[in-house]
Amino acid sequence: MSTAGPVTLTELTARTHLDERYLREWLAALVSAGYIQFEPSTAKYVLPPEHATVLVDESSPFFMGGMLQLLVPMHSMAPRVAEAFRTGKGAPLDEYPPDMFEGTERGSGPCFEIISYSDGYRQRRVLKPAYAMDVL
Fold this sequence. Notes:
The chain is mainly alpha-helical. Helices cover 54% and strands 10% of the residues. The protein folds into 2 domains: 7-55, Arc Repressor Mutant, subunit A, CATH 1.10.10.10; 65-135, no CATH class. Strand 4 (114-116) and strand 5 form a beta hairpin. The radius of gyration is 20 Å and the shape is elongated.
């Protein structure tokens, strides 16, 4: 929706190959939550650009998709982390699901691409998040 502009339910169903009924319910939930807008006169759904920055643009430091991706792996590891706190034996990284690392990279990567220096000069660089943490 961010690149297509306003779309009808039928157009979005054709583009996404999703079930129309499920898509209609999902869109209604997004409209009621204020994430997208519905224009009754044209029966079109719109994703405002300022919302796309947070919901769609993975290069944006405001993108939240990676953080949302962390919810399931964090929840799945909660019992193991609680056990680590009780026993003091830790929770090895190899026990964490891959989504934990992918979500962390997607959520924090764009922030590490922009490095601010004390003199106010801003330089855009592509750094691996772990390396950026070492440098900062």
